[in-house]
Design a protein that fits this description.
Helices cover 4% and strands 58% of the residues. The protein starts with a helix and ends with a strand. The protein has one helix at residues 3-9; strands at residues 15-24, 31-41, 58-74, 77-92, 100-114, 119-128, 131-133, 146-148, 151-159.
């Protein structure tokens, strides 16, 4: 987790999984990749509320679908980028604050290195809009809106069937 996701969870590590299907576009190796996945970053303890509207502790779950364009660079190295549609499930843990769930657009960029016929190492950077963070510390407190755009880096090993 990075930046706004760390503000929400106070955690830097989470779990993710992804499945994808690829379709070659031309003989030069340009490929379309359709993918879907799930990310979970769980907050282990509840922090004391502060004046920062983004400092509430929360569990963050994100399911996404997207499409990438894969570009062969050299050997088994491919670079890719493309849009995602992210379905957020943010559950606040601090009493008196609201949870929020929404679907928003995002983008990712990354690379993959095939080290065996069917095995590869992947790394990608994702950023997605989450919308707003709207804590209500008390009934009389005005709404505070602060834009949050969670981002994360994922590293994984993939197997091609």
């Amino acid at each position: 987790a990075q930046e706004d996701m760390v503000r929400l969870t106070r955690e830097h590590m989470g779990l993710f999984g992804e499945i994808s299907a690829r379709r070659a576009l031309n003989a030069e190796g340009l490929t379309l990749n359709f993918h879907g996945g799930h990310l979970a970053v769980y907050r282990k303890e509840v922090a004391v509320a502060t004046t920062d509207p983004g400092s509430d502790t929360a569990d963050v779950k994100n399911s996404w679908v997207g499409m990438d364009i894969y570009y062969p660079v050299k050997g088994g190295i491919h670079l890719y980028t493309g849009p995602t549609l992210n379905m957020w499930d943010i559950v606040a843990k601090t009493a008196g604050k609201r949870a929020d769930s929404s679907a928003k657009f995002g983008w990712r960029a990354g690379g993959t290195y095939s080290f065996l016929t069917r095995w590869a190492v992947d790394i990608n950077y994702n950023v997605a809009e989450w919308t707003r963070y709207d804590p209500r510390l008390a009934e009389t407190a005005p709404k505070q809106q602060v834009r949050r755009n969670p981002s994360w880096v994922s590293v994984g090993v993939s197997y091609k069937f």
